[in-house]
Amino acid sequence: MAINLEKGQRISLEKDGAELSDVSLGLGWGRRTKKGFFGTSEVDVDLDASCLLFDEQGQLRDQVWFRQLKSRCGSIRHTGDDRSGGGGGENERIELSLGAVPAEVKSLVFTVNSFLNDSFAGIPSAFCRLVNKATGQEIARYDISLDGGDYTGLVVAVIYRHEGKWKMRAVGEKGYGRTFQEMMPLISANLP
């Protein structure tokens, strides 16, 4: 049974005493409803998921996003850019082989940004979920549409090493920026 995470909540990425190795972090969102003269229609929403790899000193070592779909080490892969949203499931997914993440990487930060600089207000059913790739079982889910708001970026979660074990923290810090680069001060402030 999946854990419904709340902002600031932490979980261990161990199951039955064994550390999970292959997981994916999926991001899903609905399409915005627009009211017009002839009724309502759905409008595309272009959100972008990113994974940023940081070392112990808080230095960015690599990034995975729609302009670089794979980390240089090959341990993290983005499945591709969705520019419309909707569908009820995951729209973008980042797959991780945690056992292959280089030892110098201490934390993986996940962000979502509105590339068209549209606010998150009115975007329905936005969530992220962590899945065990071996079983397809959902480990944790974090609802990121509860707040709405005029922000254009969000630091969603951090997966980090603590005493040699991988842990996850739901972050939920709102920011502004079309890409993760524009949110680096907020991202840095949320490193473990």
Automatic annotation (TrEMBL):
Alphabetized InterPro entries for the sequence: Stress/Tellurium_Resist, TerD
GO terms under biological process: response to tellurium ion
Keywords, comma-separated and alphabetical: Tellurium resistance
Keyword 4Fe-4S (UniProt): no
CDD domains: TerD_like
Domain TerD: 1-183
PANTHER family linked to this entry: CAMP-BINDING PROTEIN 1-RELATED
Identification of the protein by name: Putative stress response protein, TerZ-and CABP1
